[in-house]
Sequence to fold (162 residues):
Amino acid sequence: MDKQEIYDFLKSKNIWFEVTEHKAVYNMAEVSQIEMPYPEADAKNIFIRDDKKRNYYLITLKGDKRVDLKKFRGLNDTRPLGFASENDLMNIMGLIPGAVTPLGLLNDEERKVKLFIDRELAGEDSLIGVHPNDNTATVWLKTKDLIAIIEEHGNQVFIAEI
Fold:
């Protein structure tokens, strides 16, 4: 799905969302230069894989947090972890670096990526800001709605301490 298809999909599911259009951004430093309506809900996403390239994980957390992959590995009983390649990102989710988003899982035909959302973004009425499979916009929606559409698609979703 491209950006417009994401918007159409969300509308078809009657999911509330807002869009902030902006220049292309490739990292959180560039995002911090943009005026965002819900800065506390802005998320960053890290696409990783195990050392055998058998298991893929998308970690979604608050934009100002860091991920300790060794700690994540221990808490989630995974093999050694590293960053997934640009090729894996394109082949699995149809995304380019800088546009990584949980909405990219809607392109994961094999449902091979497990989504881990930071508990800080997953409160009952929490909002989350993610790219709509394109890094020229941020979509704001309720975290519980995001989780529901990813689970409905067939990918596993976990709420975790990150």
Observations:
- Residues 7 and 132 are 8 Å apart (CA to CA).
- The mean pLDDT is 93.
- Helices lie at 3-12, 28-31, 69-76, 86-93, 143-153.
- The beta strands are 17-21, 43-50, 56-62, 81-83, 113-118, 127-130, 137-142, 157-160.
